[in-house]
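Input record, target 12 of the design panel.
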């Protein structure tokens, strides 16, 4: 005999599974360390942080050479996360550290500064701050090689400048992560710049199911990391 579940039971079951997913969501077999897993668990966006951790660990496992760069640092939360996972790699932090430039009309992210980020990081070994307007702050890095880039600066011009600078300097197999790819912010600025730039490129974009609509691509192996310079 079939017993039909009541609407109340079905609702309670759905709530149970939703709460269970909220509190128990994490990988059973992560490739990264227990310390990084704990940071993922308590992060503001576990899906994005776990995805970045997997990508960065893949870079390490495969021995892909190059520094790490973060463009759009704000108060240094993701900076600390990246540096905790790969302290042996050079970490370049690009930001005005005063919010968006004057005249931009966007007054967010001004409650920060290099000192705030330094206190968040604690360990400053292998960390280099590049304060100012991107890409002017890349001066002297023309011959640097990168294995992992995280972009989170929201605007179309900044996205395009970041792609133009880092793409030809990415090591084959390196990971390029763009936050807000699926965000309508600034007229879908990140997605518009990304799609325009990637036309004719061999890489495919992979989207994350995270809160901020992040996307990523890996530099195709066998390609010349200096192509396009």
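The sequence produced for target 12 reads:
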């Amino acid at each position: 005999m079939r017993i039909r579940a009541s609407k109340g039971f079905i609702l309670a079951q759905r709530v149970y599974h939703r709460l269970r997913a909220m509190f128990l969501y994490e990988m059973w077999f992560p490739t990264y360390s227990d310390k990084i897993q704990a940071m993922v668990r308590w992060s503001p966006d576990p899906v994005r942080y776990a995805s970045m951790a997997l990508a960065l660990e893949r870079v390490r496992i495969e021995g892909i050479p190059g520094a790490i760069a973060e463009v759009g640092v704000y108060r240094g939360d993701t900076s600390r996360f990246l540096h905790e996972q790969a302290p042996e790699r050079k970490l370049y932090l690009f930001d005005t550290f005063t919010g968006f430039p004057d005249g931009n009309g966007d007054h967010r992210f001004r409650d920060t500064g290099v000192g705030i980020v330094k206190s968040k990081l604690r360990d400053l070994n292998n960390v280099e701050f590049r304060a100012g307007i991107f890409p002017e702050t890349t001066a002297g890095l023309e011959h640097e090689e990168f294995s992992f880039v995280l972009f989170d600066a929201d605007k179309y011009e900044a996205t395009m400048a970041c792609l133009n600078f880092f793409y030809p300097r990415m090591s084959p197999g390196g990971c390029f992560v763009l936050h807000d790819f699926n965000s309508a912010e600034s007229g879908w600025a990140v997605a518009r710049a990304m799609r325009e730039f990637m036309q004719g490129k061999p890489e495919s974009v992979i989207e994350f199911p995270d809160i901020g609509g992040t996307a990523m691509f890996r530099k195709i192996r066998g390609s010349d990391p200096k192509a396009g310079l």
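The two ends are 72 Å apart (CA to CA).
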